[in-house]
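Consider the following assembly input.
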Amino acid sequence: MSHFTNFWASVPQGPPDPILGVSEAFAKDQSSNKINVGVGAYRDENGKPYVLESVSKAEDILHQKRSNKEYLPITGEADFVKLASELAYGKDCKALQDGRIAVSQSISGTGALRIATGFLSMFYSGPRVVYLPNPTWGNHIPVVEQTGMRVARYRYFDKKTVGLDFDGMKEDIKAAEQGSIILLHACAQNPTGIDPTQDQWKELCEITKAKKHLVLFDMAYQGFASGDIIRDAFAVRYFVEQGHQILLAQSFAKNLGLYGERIGTFSMVCTNKEEKDRIQSQVKRVIRPLYSSPPLHGAQLVATILGSPELYEQWLGEVKKMADRIIAMRERLYDLLVEFKTPGEWGHIKSQIGMFSFTGLTPEQVDALKDHAHVYMTRDGRISMAGLNEGNIQYFAESVSKAVKGELQSKSSL
Amino acid sequence: MARRAVSAWANVPQGPPDPILGVTEKFKADPSPNKINLGVGAYRDGKGNPFVLPSVKKAEKQLVRAGANHEYLPITGLASFNKLAAELAYGKDSAPLKEGRLAITQSISGTGALRIAAAFLGRFYPESKTIYVPTPTWGNHIPLAKDSGLEVKHYKYFDKSTVGLDFEGMKADIEAAPEGSIIMLHACAHNPTGVDPTESQWKELSEIIKQKKHFPFFDMAYQGFASGDIVKDAFAVRYFVEQGHQLLLCQSFAKNLGLYGERVGAVSFVCADKEEKARVDSQLKIIIRPMYSNPPIHGARIVSAILGDEKLYNDWLSEVKKMADRIISMREKLYTNLVKLNTPGEWGHIKSQIGMFSFTGLTPEQVDKLAEKASIYMTRDGRISMAALNKKNIDYFAKAVSQAVKGEL
């Protein structure tokens, strides 16, 4: 039966996602020594996905409980929301104890950011622009633009030092119109792995306060950055202590290895409980027409773990182990790159924090690595350290070294 | 420690409670032992308890044993789930499936599917940015469409005087809509009225929509739940596809698989050919990525396990029939009780309406009284979820409704 309409004839082919598209290409590659350092998903020493034991135990507990599958409230599972916010803000956070933080369960970190930008586009009366660091996680941009707000950038990464351009960052944030929305990565900046020091955070706190900016923290790596969940939450907790009414996007994808369960929170620090209630009523109106209510399973898992002293302790040990293995890979990679006499400075591999490293490789070198060495990373030269292990790090370092030296070519092109 | 001098949120107004989910909030706060919540469309068993399907329990047990990981799904979700969901809705032999020209993605249940669909239409539908929804429709359809940049208009649907379908009005309005308009159709078990077109009425609608080159936007949240027969409930969708319509379909597994909180659904687009499907697919990913990156795994795995296993699939078919049958028996009982109590008005619609909901015809004032005086909670449009009724509470309910109609509450 032929169609009498032709609705989608002009729908253009969209480009593959710059990050998730890497995994798609990797999956198609038949080579036995292929390496995927694209997506930020932790891999163990054998390159395998890692299910935390505390998570497996929680799965068993849940299964025994035989709870039902009823709809969650729009703002999510109550126990989960309470425990998750205590993890982020600290149990003794005054604002939390006063009941003036509006918290909702979200579809992991992306979903939290989308609630944030959705809420801001509807209710924020300040400038309709969100300042993002340069560079930032690629998906930040459409998350902002999809809600009709504009993206602006502040300087962040210094190519020359392969470190933080702190003066540039401060200048740009100071120059932004009063009351601008400033997005800050709480720890383990993605993609650079470069974080402000605690002193630098204190300066940023003062500057943003003086300009009455609205701060949105993206915390996707609490525990993953240093291995210490309190240390990683320093910036968030300090800003709240200092009186900022922050917005926070929290993800449990990496630190609990719950990637596909899509579990996170969106929260806003309010003036008082009355304001929090008003805000929560409007947050619900952002969520309801997006997906009505959030998914159950991940929330139940996290609540089980955070709510059990035993499982909680076990989890702290596991997240430290993951962070430590990544730090060990950093050391190893640095040593190998130096051993292979790779041109350039590579100390940043060791000093960068969290899952990612900004190698400094050019797009052409990235392409060469893909085409001639079966090594897959995003074109900005970001690698996920978690994708490396004793089994592949030698080949990886060798390939990178060749790429930098311009020695990676197919035999046919010689 | 000083706070901001003037809060950024000082002028954020208190939002109204959600008309549907707000009912549950009120119900929870009520201490009465006789309270009944007929607000949300969630199935309850004969004892009034939430019901986890046995096939779901079996599937979950398998999953736990297999010790599956928690890795990210692709943006468009679990491939095996998508394949099986499409087969369930369209039928294995459906031409778009066999020809590989159905673009489908997993979604956050029905709402998520609708939101993706509306966003896609808002961005790419060439003919119009107006969507026509029936009067009345599920409340959330409207903000969801508007937030996606679509204008919302209405077509006649419910006839208050007959408590049935205003088919002439429906046809007239759809015919009058400008060529190429987006027409939203509830595939079965219309929410909130429970009033569905007959098969021959669907055939007429297909012709009119074909002539006007309209775009059919199907919302199917109750496949299996309406009649107890998944093939019968998918009649409209499958007929339209056979007739050559390039439709889109939103599917939910919240009710028919009882997976409410796991948020499992799918949205699909019938395309002209494989190449077009690839293009549509690529743009769906671009819409989804900034919303939530990729969908939740757990529910999709459960559905995939059930639909993909012959025994579990057959188990499920009888479970969904049992749920539909219990609701039908509650309809019979409620009708009988209301008539016995000499309740003024015609009540035959309680029996003829289809699916989980019944549009009682109660006024907002009567609804308020029922909440206040009898601890009976429903949405203010008089919609009740039949699934909330059972042998224990149906007499109390019928009595209270009768009194409300007589003005005696």
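Chain A has a mean pLDDT of 94. Ask yourself how this observation constrains the way the partners meet.
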